[in-house]
Amino acid sequence: MTQVGHDPKDSQIWYYNGTPAACTFVALDYVLPKFANFSVPDLVVTGPNYGTNLGGFVWTLSGTAGAAYAATNRGIPAIAISASNQEVPYFEVKNRTNPATWAAQASVKFVENFIATSPKNGPLLPLGYGVSVNLPVLTKKNQNPDFVQTRFTGNAHVNEAVLDKEKGTFTWANIKPYAAGVNACINGDCSLPGETYVVENGKASVSFYTVDYSAPSTVYTKSLIQRVASFVSSDK
């Protein structure tokens, strides 16, 4: 297999042997300009990933998130979708009852509805904004989950290192009870339910993100600015 190429049976399916964010860049800077009749897409959809990316901690580690961030930072609207199904190669998904198929169908449904409700003749998302969608465990009886507007924080998990004394190696586990830091609601609507809670209860979460990491202008931020004013200059 070469580093970049397309499925031998479908020239519309391309692969790149690299990180998810690198895949976004290769698509934008190589595949589309060279093999499509356009170079800047209206929307980048990353996923559906196998495995969810719930809460701010896991989201920060996520390749699915990184691929979406790569597009958002380039000024291209992006939706990151993460599902609860197990890993399976796409060429082994050959029936409509495979959880990966259900995840794909739910993803397409959301994306189509999102596009349909977008403003005419305008971008699908404001500059610097993106969407994170997490799908619950899908079954024959729950192939079409309800989508719920959520926030990243709230019932979110963060990990701890757990030593296997016999092997002398480490694995991970979720800290219990919930860690306060990852669940501090600083940005957004704090009245919304946390995406972790929503997905664990069988519904799909929809959280909006921005690529501006700066702390919001709050009483806490202003107090920090005043605190460092004696040794950190301001060029405003």
From TrEMBL:
Residues 9-143 form the Survival protein SurE-like phosphatase/nucleotidase domain. It holds the Pfam family SurE. Keywords: Hydrolase, Metal-binding. It comes from Fusarium oxysporum NRRL 32931. This is 5'/3'-nucleotidase SurE. Belongs to the SurE nucleotidase family. InterPro entries: SurE, SurE-like_Pase/nucleotidase, SurE-like_sf. One of its GO terms (molecular function) is nucleotidase activity.
